[in-house]
Amino acid sequence: MESIFTYFxxxxxxHRAILLVGGIMFFxxxxxxxPLFKFSYKKWxxxxxxxxFTLTTIIINFGLAFLLLKSxxxxxxxxxxxxxxxxEIPLWLYVTLGVLLLDFFGAYLAHFVEHKxxxxxxxxxxxxxxxxxxxxxxxxxxxxxSVIRFSFTILGVLVVGTPIAIVFLYQFLSVIFTQLTHANIxxxxxxxxxxxxxxxxxxxxxxxxxxxxxYTDSNYGNIFSIWDRLFGTYMELDRDNIxxxxxxxxxxxxxxxxSELLKQPFKKYQKPTAKF
Length: 276
Ligand SMILES: [Zn+2]
Prior knowledge:
Blueprint: H1 2-9, H2 13-33, H3 43-78, H4 82-85, H5 91-116, H6 118-128, H7 143-160, H8 164-182, H9 189-195, H10 202-208, H11 226-230, H12 258-263
Helix pairs in contact: 1-8, 2-8, 3-7, 5-6, 5-7, 5-8
The protein binds zinc ion (ZN).
Protein backbone atom coordinates (compact mmCIF):
# COMPACT_ATOMS: atom_id res chain seq x y z
CA MET A 1 0.00 0.00 0.00
CA GLU A 2 2.85 2.34 0.78
CA SER A 3 4.35 1.91 -2.67
CA ILE A 4 0.94 2.64 -4.27
CA PHE A 5 0.71 5.77 -2.12
CA THR A 6 4.19 6.90 -3.14
CA TYR A 7 3.48 6.20 -6.84
CA PHE A 8 0.35 8.35 -6.88
CA UNK A 9 2.05 11.11 -4.91
CA UNK A 10 4.25 11.83 -7.92
CA UNK A 11 2.37 10.13 -10.77
CA UNK A 12 3.87 11.33 -14.07
CA UNK A 13 1.53 13.39 -16.25
CA UNK A 14 2.35 10.99 -19.09
CA HIS A 15 0.84 8.06 -17.15
CA ARG A 16 -2.39 10.00 -16.67
CA ALA A 17 -2.50 10.86 -20.37
CA ILE A 18 -1.85 7.23 -21.36
CA LEU A 19 -4.71 6.09 -19.11
CA LEU A 20 -7.16 8.56 -20.66
CA VAL A 21 -6.20 8.13 -24.31
CA GLY A 22 -5.43 4.39 -24.01
CA GLY A 23 -8.76 3.84 -22.26
CA ILE A 24 -10.70 5.64 -24.99
CA MET A 25 -8.92 3.58 -27.65
CA PHE A 26 -9.45 0.30 -25.77
CA PHE A 27 -13.19 0.81 -25.24
CA UNK A 28 -13.62 2.26 -28.75
CA UNK A 29 -12.37 -1.05 -30.14
CA UNK A 30 -14.36 -3.13 -27.64
CA UNK A 31 -17.54 -1.27 -28.67
CA UNK A 32 -16.94 -2.60 -32.18
CA UNK A 33 -16.89 -6.22 -31.06
CA UNK A 34 -19.19 -6.30 -28.04
CA PRO A 35 -21.71 -3.44 -28.29
CA LEU A 36 -24.62 -3.02 -25.89
CA PHE A 37 -26.69 -1.24 -28.56
CA LYS A 38 -26.10 -1.61 -32.29
CA PHE A 39 -26.18 2.12 -33.11
CA SER A 40 -26.51 3.09 -36.75
CA TYR A 41 -24.38 6.22 -36.40
CA LYS A 42 -21.21 7.66 -37.82
CA LYS A 43 -18.84 7.00 -34.94
CA TRP A 44 -16.33 9.76 -35.72
CA UNK A 45 -19.01 12.36 -36.50
CA UNK A 46 -20.65 11.54 -33.15
CA UNK A 47 -17.32 11.58 -31.33
CA UNK A 48 -16.15 14.99 -32.52
CA UNK A 49 -18.21 17.28 -30.18
CA UNK A 50 -17.62 14.88 -27.29
CA UNK A 51 -13.86 14.89 -27.84
CA UNK A 52 -13.99 18.69 -28.07
CA PHE A 53 -15.64 18.84 -24.63
CA THR A 54 -13.15 16.28 -23.29
CA LEU A 55 -10.38 18.63 -24.41
CA THR A 56 -11.97 21.69 -22.77
CA THR A 57 -12.36 19.68 -19.56
CA ILE A 58 -8.65 18.74 -19.64
CA ILE A 59 -7.62 22.37 -20.28
CA ILE A 60 -9.77 23.66 -17.39
CA ASN A 61 -8.53 20.98 -14.98
CA PHE A 62 -4.95 21.69 -16.02
CA GLY A 63 -5.38 25.45 -15.68
CA LEU A 64 -6.90 25.17 -12.21
CA ALA A 65 -4.58 22.39 -10.96
CA PHE A 66 -2.59 24.87 -8.86
CA LEU A 67 -5.71 25.41 -6.69
CA LEU A 68 -5.92 21.67 -6.08
CA LEU A 69 -2.26 21.58 -5.03
CA LYS A 70 -2.76 24.61 -2.78
CA SER A 71 -5.74 22.87 -1.12
CA UNK A 72 -3.92 19.58 -0.50
CA UNK A 73 -0.90 21.49 0.87
CA UNK A 74 -3.16 23.48 3.18
CA UNK A 75 -5.00 20.45 4.65
CA UNK A 76 -1.67 18.65 5.15
CA UNK A 77 -0.09 21.67 6.87
CA UNK A 78 -3.08 22.15 9.17
CA UNK A 79 -3.92 18.48 9.62
CA UNK A 80 -7.42 19.47 8.55
CA UNK A 81 -10.33 17.28 7.39
CA UNK A 82 -12.35 14.21 8.36
CA UNK A 83 -9.70 11.53 7.71
CA UNK A 84 -7.10 13.50 9.66
CA UNK A 85 -9.33 13.91 12.70
CA UNK A 86 -9.82 10.15 13.05
CA UNK A 87 -7.76 8.18 15.54
CA GLU A 88 -4.66 6.42 14.16
CA ILE A 89 -5.80 3.97 11.41
CA PRO A 90 -3.90 1.70 9.01
CA LEU A 91 -2.80 3.30 5.73
CA TRP A 92 -5.09 1.10 3.59
CA LEU A 93 -8.11 2.26 5.59
CA TYR A 94 -6.98 5.89 5.46
CA VAL A 95 -6.66 5.68 1.66
CA THR A 96 -9.95 3.79 1.19
CA LEU A 97 -11.88 6.27 3.32
CA GLY A 98 -10.25 9.17 1.50
CA VAL A 99 -11.24 7.83 -1.95
CA LEU A 100 -14.74 6.89 -0.75
CA LEU A 101 -15.46 10.32 0.75
CA LEU A 102 -13.87 12.19 -2.14
CA ASP A 103 -16.21 10.24 -4.42
CA PHE A 104 -19.12 11.51 -2.34
CA PHE A 105 -18.21 15.22 -2.17
CA GLY A 106 -16.44 15.55 -5.51
CA ALA A 107 -18.81 13.47 -7.64
CA TYR A 108 -22.07 12.23 -6.08
CA LEU A 109 -22.91 15.52 -4.34
CA ALA A 110 -21.80 17.63 -7.32
CA HIS A 111 -23.90 15.51 -9.68
CA PHE A 112 -26.95 15.51 -7.36
CA VAL A 113 -26.85 19.32 -7.03
CA GLU A 114 -26.51 19.69 -10.82
CA HIS A 115 -29.76 17.78 -11.25
CA LYS A 116 -31.68 19.64 -8.53
CA UNK A 117 -30.75 23.28 -9.23
CA UNK A 118 -32.40 24.37 -12.53
CA UNK A 119 -29.60 26.77 -13.58
CA UNK A 120 -27.00 24.01 -13.06
CA UNK A 121 -29.18 21.40 -14.75
CA UNK A 122 -29.17 23.55 -17.89
CA UNK A 123 -25.37 23.31 -17.83
CA UNK A 124 -25.39 19.56 -17.16
CA UNK A 125 -27.92 18.88 -19.98
CA UNK A 126 -24.99 18.89 -22.42
CA UNK A 127 -23.86 15.60 -20.87
CA UNK A 128 -27.36 14.10 -21.05
CA UNK A 129 -28.35 15.27 -24.53
CA UNK A 130 -26.20 12.63 -26.23
CA UNK A 131 -28.49 10.22 -28.09
CA UNK A 132 -25.74 7.63 -28.48
CA UNK A 133 -23.99 7.08 -25.16
CA UNK A 134 -20.57 5.57 -25.76
CA UNK A 135 -16.94 5.87 -24.64
CA UNK A 136 -16.75 9.47 -25.89
CA UNK A 137 -19.78 10.59 -23.83
CA UNK A 138 -17.95 10.20 -20.51
CA UNK A 139 -16.31 13.62 -20.55
CA UNK A 140 -18.92 15.47 -22.61
CA UNK A 141 -19.18 18.34 -20.13
CA UNK A 142 -19.87 22.01 -20.85
CA UNK A 143 -16.83 24.10 -19.77
CA UNK A 144 -18.96 25.68 -17.00
CA UNK A 145 -19.70 22.18 -15.69
CA SER A 146 -15.98 21.38 -15.66
CA VAL A 147 -15.49 24.40 -13.38
CA ILE A 148 -18.43 23.36 -11.16
CA ARG A 149 -17.08 19.83 -10.80
CA PHE A 150 -13.60 21.14 -10.08
CA SER A 151 -15.01 23.36 -7.31
CA PHE A 152 -16.70 20.35 -5.70
CA THR A 153 -13.40 18.43 -5.86
CA ILE A 154 -11.73 21.29 -3.96
CA LEU A 155 -14.59 21.22 -1.45
CA GLY A 156 -14.04 17.46 -1.09
CA VAL A 157 -10.30 17.88 -0.52
CA LEU A 158 -10.92 20.49 2.19
CA VAL A 159 -13.70 18.59 4.00
CA VAL A 160 -12.15 15.13 3.70
CA GLY A 161 -8.57 16.31 4.20
CA THR A 162 -7.04 14.23 1.40
CA PRO A 163 -3.35 14.45 0.55
CA ILE A 164 -2.42 14.79 -3.14
CA ALA A 165 -1.63 11.03 -3.44
CA ILE A 166 -5.25 10.14 -2.59
CA VAL A 167 -6.57 12.84 -4.95
CA PHE A 168 -4.50 11.45 -7.83
CA LEU A 169 -5.51 7.86 -6.99
CA TYR A 170 -9.14 8.98 -6.89
CA GLN A 171 -8.85 10.75 -10.26
CA PHE A 172 -7.16 7.67 -11.73
CA LEU A 173 -10.05 5.43 -10.63
CA SER A 174 -12.55 8.06 -11.71
CA VAL A 175 -11.22 8.00 -15.29
CA ILE A 176 -11.47 4.20 -15.38
CA PHE A 177 -15.05 4.19 -14.06
CA THR A 178 -16.22 7.05 -16.28
CA GLN A 179 -15.00 5.09 -19.28
CA LEU A 180 -16.35 1.73 -18.11
CA THR A 181 -19.81 3.08 -17.28
CA HIS A 182 -20.30 5.10 -20.47
CA ALA A 183 -18.77 2.72 -23.02
CA ASN A 184 -21.35 1.05 -25.26
CA ILE A 185 -20.33 -2.43 -24.17
CA UNK A 186 -22.38 -5.44 -23.22
CA UNK A 187 -21.37 -6.78 -19.84
CA UNK A 188 -22.96 -10.08 -18.75
CA UNK A 189 -26.09 -9.14 -16.76
CA UNK A 190 -25.09 -11.17 -13.71
CA UNK A 191 -21.61 -9.65 -13.53
CA UNK A 192 -23.08 -6.17 -13.97
CA UNK A 193 -25.54 -6.80 -11.13
CA UNK A 194 -22.82 -8.19 -8.86
CA UNK A 195 -20.58 -5.19 -9.53
CA UNK A 196 -23.44 -2.78 -8.79
CA UNK A 197 -23.62 -3.77 -5.11
CA UNK A 198 -20.47 -1.77 -4.41
CA UNK A 199 -19.44 -0.03 -7.62
CA UNK A 200 -21.28 1.87 -10.36
CA UNK A 201 -21.79 -0.70 -13.11
CA UNK A 202 -22.24 0.04 -16.85
CA UNK A 203 -25.97 -0.84 -16.81
CA UNK A 204 -26.52 1.12 -13.61
CA UNK A 205 -25.15 4.32 -15.11
CA UNK A 206 -26.99 3.83 -18.40
CA UNK A 207 -30.26 4.07 -16.42
CA UNK A 208 -29.20 7.62 -15.50
CA UNK A 209 -29.03 8.44 -19.22
CA UNK A 210 -32.65 7.35 -19.86
CA UNK A 211 -34.45 10.31 -21.44
CA UNK A 212 -37.20 10.80 -18.90
CA UNK A 213 -37.78 11.12 -15.15
CA UNK A 214 -37.64 9.54 -12.66
CA TYR A 215 -34.69 7.61 -14.14
CA THR A 216 -32.68 10.71 -15.13
CA ASP A 217 -32.69 11.70 -11.46
CA SER A 218 -31.21 8.42 -10.23
CA ASN A 219 -27.86 6.66 -10.04
CA TYR A 220 -25.71 9.78 -9.61
CA GLY A 221 -22.68 7.75 -8.47
CA ASN A 222 -19.27 7.92 -10.08
CA ILE A 223 -17.15 5.10 -8.62
CA PHE A 224 -19.14 3.68 -5.70
CA SER A 225 -22.82 2.77 -5.89
CA ILE A 226 -23.14 2.80 -2.12
CA TRP A 227 -23.97 6.54 -2.08
CA ASP A 228 -27.00 5.95 -4.30
CA ARG A 229 -28.05 2.97 -2.23
CA LEU A 230 -27.57 4.90 1.02
CA PHE A 231 -29.48 8.01 -0.06
CA GLY A 232 -32.27 6.20 -1.92
CA THR A 233 -31.36 7.38 -5.42
CA TYR A 234 -30.58 3.88 -6.74
CA MET A 235 -32.89 2.72 -9.55
CA GLU A 236 -33.04 -0.16 -11.96
CA LEU A 237 -34.35 -0.25 -15.52
CA ASP A 238 -33.71 -3.12 -17.87
CA ARG A 239 -31.13 -2.28 -20.54
CA ASP A 240 -33.64 -3.17 -23.28
CA ASN A 241 -35.94 -0.34 -22.15
CA ILE A 242 -33.34 2.42 -22.04
CA UNK A 243 -33.74 5.37 -24.43
CA UNK A 244 -30.90 7.93 -24.31
CA UNK A 245 -31.33 11.71 -24.32
CA UNK A 246 -33.37 14.37 -22.53
CA UNK A 247 -37.14 14.60 -23.02
CA UNK A 248 -37.20 18.41 -23.49
CA UNK A 249 -34.28 18.50 -25.96
CA UNK A 250 -35.13 15.85 -28.56
CA UNK A 251 -33.37 17.50 -31.52
CA UNK A 252 -30.58 15.03 -32.29
CA UNK A 253 -29.00 17.29 -34.95
CA UNK A 254 -28.74 20.32 -32.61
CA UNK A 255 -27.50 18.05 -29.81
CA UNK A 256 -24.56 17.07 -32.00
CA UNK A 257 -23.42 20.65 -32.71
CA UNK A 258 -20.71 22.22 -30.55
CA SER A 259 -22.11 25.76 -31.06
CA GLU A 260 -25.59 24.67 -29.91
CA LEU A 261 -24.21 22.78 -26.93
CA LEU A 262 -22.09 25.75 -25.80
CA LYS A 263 -25.26 27.90 -25.78
CA GLN A 264 -27.26 25.28 -23.87
CA PRO A 265 -26.87 26.75 -20.33
CA PHE A 266 -28.26 30.10 -21.52
CA LYS A 267 -31.46 28.69 -22.99
CA LYS A 268 -34.79 28.95 -21.22
CA TYR A 269 -35.40 26.33 -18.55
CA GLN A 270 -37.94 23.72 -19.59
CA LYS A 271 -39.87 21.61 -17.14
CA PRO A 272 -39.42 17.86 -17.57
CA THR A 273 -42.37 16.17 -19.25
CA ALA A 274 -42.87 13.62 -16.48
CA LYS A 275 -42.81 14.26 -12.76
CA PHE A 276 -43.11 11.59 -10.13
ZN1 LIG B 1 -26.47 13.47 -14.79
